[in-house]
């Protein structure tokens, strides 16, 4: 685990060298699209890796339906942007927290997307309502076992910034 309680997360083509956990990713049609990998270390493992809440990682985690909303190349949205804050409010207001949720950060202040995972019969339908996919187009995928655990429900109603080193939904100040 990194000292800041975040890990690196990236969708890679085949090789997740040195990853602490990885799982196969398939598109809605069942076709493989790569591996989703997580690294619990300070140094960035691959160029396109993003910061994620390290609590999402569980090598014993079950498969899950996932909405992966990623910023397009060159996009630079501040984490404090009103659209990001509204997406967080929407998650808090839903009342049915996802099994896994983390924002994805490019650096200490730039929002680069979110990963939202659900399990169960209506998982795919519920992911179609992902508020972060309103900011950046969400890609619905299936992530195999061995990567995603469960995260605690997001803390609320407070949504102020509490330190730019940690991806939301951390529930306390450093």
Radius of gyration: 15 Å
- Structural class of the secondary elements? mainly beta
Helix content: 10-25%
Instruction: Bin the strand percentage.
Output: 25-35%
Specify the oligomeric state: single chain
Number of helices: 2
- The CATH level-2 architecture of the domain at 50-143 is identified as 2-Layer Sandwich
CATH fold annotation of the domain at 50-143: Alpha-Beta Plaits
Detail the poorly predicted runs: none
Largest sheet: 9 strands, antiparallel
> Helix and strand succession?
EEEEEEHEEHE
The top level CATH class name of the domain at 50-143? Alpha Beta
Shape: globular
Mean pLDDT: 88
Distance between the termini: 15 Å
Total strands: the figure is 9
């Amino acid at each position: 685990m990194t000292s800041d309680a975040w890990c690196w997360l990236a969708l890679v083509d085949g090789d997740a060298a040195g990853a602490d956990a990885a799982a196969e990713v398939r598109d809605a049609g069942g076709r493989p699209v790569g591996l989703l990998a997580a690294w619990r270390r300070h140094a960035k493992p691959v160029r396109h890796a993003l910061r994620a809440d390290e609590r999402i990682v569980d090598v014993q985690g079950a498969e899950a339906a996932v909405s992966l909303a990623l910023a397009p190349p060159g996009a630079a949205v501040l984490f404090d942007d009103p659209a990001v804050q509204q997406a967080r409010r929407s998650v808090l207001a839903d009342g049915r927290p996802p099994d896994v949720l983390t924002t994805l950060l490019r650096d200490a202040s730039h929002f680069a997307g979110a990963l939202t995972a659900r399990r169960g019969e209506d998982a795919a339908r519920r992911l179609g309502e992902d508020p972060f996919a309103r900011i950046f187009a969400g890609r619905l995928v299936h992530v195999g076992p061995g990567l995603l655990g469960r995260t605690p429900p997001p803390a609320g109603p407070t949504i102020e910034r509490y330190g730019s080193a940690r991806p939301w939904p951390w529930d306390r100040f450093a």
